[in-house]
Amino acid sequence: MQIGNAVYRHVLEAELARPKGHFTENGIARDLSISPNTVSIAIKRLLDIGAAAMYRRHFEILSFDKALAYWAATRKFGKDIVYSTYVNKPAKAIEQSMPGETAYTSYTGYANLFGNDAADYGEVYVYATDVGLSDIKSRFEKNLFAPRSKYANLVVLKPDKVLYVMIKENSLNKSTVPKTQLYADLWNISEWNAYEFVKKLKKTIDDEYAKNLLQLSRN
User: Fold this and answer.
1) pLDDT tens digits for 69-117?
2) Is 147 exposed, middle or buried (0-12, 13-18, 19+ CB in 10 A)?
3) Cβ(32)–Cβ(1) under 8 Å?
4) Whole-prediction pTM
5) How is domain 4-74 classified at the architecture level of CATH?
6) Where do the structural domains in the chain lie, given as residue ranges?
């Protein structure tokens, strides 16, 4: 995963939790242990489309919705895939056999956080550390006789270095990526049912943002 995605996740999760926040590029760089230049490049893209505004000492998100849509639309999901295979088991059985040092995204991630009220699914997507990936390969070997050409129902992705630490330290809620990351990932999945999850998750995120905005206006 490009490290710029860690910037979008950090900013959007903070904005979702507390709308109209003030951010500084140096502050984000310090929080994520990355270079200020990396932050600057990522934020410039949001400035260019009017999703953010830069002031003398800070920048703000002007349109959370537009910033989230930009991340989802430009996310290079396929480039992060490091392992995939077909497992002759239903998704629930694959999930139950998943080793440690992994974090769910996509359908499983949504179901972990909100319960599955969207659609049935048969594929499992996870991020994994080096240890987690090694264990996955041992438990779920490459299947050379998949039922459809190039079809895989277990897909493993490489996390950016910030998410890697979160997985390693087991600090993620229900071993699942944050909501904004989940949205960006689901947006980039081509299975027919992915959009049902996208719509449900977007409504959940919108409702949470509206609630937090209202709470802010009352303070």
Assistant:
1) 999 999 999 999 999 999 999 999 999 999 999 999 999 999 999 998 8
2) exposed
3) no
4) 0.94
5) Orthogonal Bundle (1.10)
6) 4-74, 77-201
